[in-house]
Every structure is written in C-alpha cells, then in structure tokens.
Write a structure and sequence with these properties.
mainly alpha, 9 helices, globular
C-alpha cells in the first residue's frame, strides 16, 4: 500500500514538473521572434555586419571565431557552462554505481580487447599517432583565430589523445591516469578562466568581455593585439573545459563498469 502511494506521488510530481516546464517554455517562446522572420536583427542587419566588419572589429580573420569568441562571447560562455554541467550530471548519475578499481579496469580491458587491439603494429602506430594528435590539438587551438579550429575542436583532439592512450592495451607510452574528479576540476578551471577573461576588462573600466579594455598590451593603439589575446584566452578556457568533460565522461564510465559482465 505504501509503495503504491509512493508511486502515485512520484507520478504526480513528474506530471507537475512536465506541466511547469511546458508552461514556462510556452511563456518564454511568446517573447522570442518567429523563426525565419525577416525583421529580426539576425536576418535584417547583424549577419551582414558580421561579414563586413569582423576583421576590423575583432582582428580575427576567421569570421566564425570572431562571432563565437567576440561578438557572441556570452553565448559561448553559456555553452561552456552547459558542457561543465553535463560532466557534473554524468558523475552524479553514475555515482550510485560501485566504483571499480583502476587496476581491475585496465586488466579487464586488456583481457577482453587483446585479440582486437594488442599487437606490435598497433602499439608502434599509436606511439606515433598520439603525439601527432597532441601537437595538432595545440595547433588547432592557437591557429583557430585565423583559420579553421578553436577551443571546442582542440579540446576534443586532446581528449582523444588521452582516450587512445587509456584504452589501447599494452600501450607502454601511457600518461598518468586522470581520475574523473581531476578531469572535472580541469573542466571547471577552464570555465572559470573564461569568466576571469571576461572580468579583466571590467577592472580597466570596460564591459564584460570587452577585449580592447584588457589591462595589458601596448595601449589603446594595440586594439588588434588585445582582441587576439582575449580570443586566445577564451579558447584556452574552452579547450580545458571540453577536454576535461570528455575525459570525465570516459573515466566515470570506465571506473564504474564491470567488464566481466
């Protein structure tokens, strides 16, 4: 009887949450412009302005980077925070499962995957591939302002290098094991670094994320250099957050999965 009442309360709570979220979404949607409307800022003049003035305003030759890391820095900050929250959610959801020891995880991965991955050819190949991925990830981070790349791609590449080193059995060029807690702290540090980058201009009389007010550089005439520095700082924060979250999700799954099942 008590279990039946508990289930009824749970169902009622879920229904109430669905109704509340739905009503909130409808209310918020009523303030938003109609999708595809020609009189919205994005469709009327903003896109053309970005294309025509991106290099002049942001000193970035990559318009995508100029928009994401300069014009719409708030949006990218919120996206970074969403990634960080996703890592926290993964840890919270899987925290109720029994944590498997790292040594057992590695041993069982080796036992179950040896016939697929373990060979001298694979080991030799990954000794070359992993350093190249690391170098390319750093290149993508630094080069994202003027070409294809940026923090999201760089973070994914660096995390993939760690992933390969983590899951390939008998691969002796193994880096130090990163726990999900350390990876999550790394992701949080990246998001915090992003916020600090936005706050620094405020200490010099500017607005949040107003890069030409960063308290370093050669002065007002070095606006291009200040924007480049600000964009790079944001990209570093995003890289740390993305890399940390991918590693967090990988580790939290591996450490709480029994490969003997």
């Amino acid at each position: 009887m008590k279990k039946s009442n508990s289930n009824k309360k749970l169902a009622a709570g879920l229904i109430a949450i669905i109704i509340l979220v739905g009503a909130s979404a409808l209310k918020i949607g009523s303030f938003l412009p109609v999708i595809g409307a020609q009189d919205t800022p994005a469709n009327s003049y903003l896109s053309e302005y970005y294309i025509s003035h991106a290099v002049e305003d942001t000193a970035s030759h990559n318009i995508v980077t100029a928009v994401l890391a300069d014009y719409r820095g708030f949006d990218t900050l919120f996206e970074t925070c969403v990634l960080f929250l996703s890592g926290i959610t993964a840890v919270m959801i899987l925290s109720t499962k029994k944590k498997i020891s790292h040594d057992k995880t590695i041993r069982t991965i080796n036992d179950n995957s040896e016939h697929i991955f373990s060979s001298n050819i694979m080991d030799a190949a990954f000794r070359i591939v992993v350093p190249i991925i690391l170098i390319y990830g750093i290149y993508v981070l630094i080069h994202g302002e003027i070409s294809l790349g940026g923090g999201f791609q760089a973070g994914a590449l660096l995390a993939c290098a760690y992933l390969l080193d983590r899951i390939i059995p008998s691969f002796q060029m193994r880096v130090k094991h990163i726990t999900d807690e350390i990876a999550l702290i790394t992701a949080g540090t990246g998001a915090l670094f992003y916020v600090i980058t936005g706050i620094l201009p405020m200490l010099n009389g500017g607005n949040f994320l107003e890069f030409n007010k960063l308290p370093f550089g050669s002065g007002a005439g070095d606006i291009a250099g200040l924007h480049s520095t600000g964009i790079l700082m944001i990209e570093i924060g995003v890289t740390l957050c993305v890399m940390g979250i991918i590693i967090t999700i990988l580790e939290v799954v591996l450490e709480r999965t029994d490969f003997d099942d």
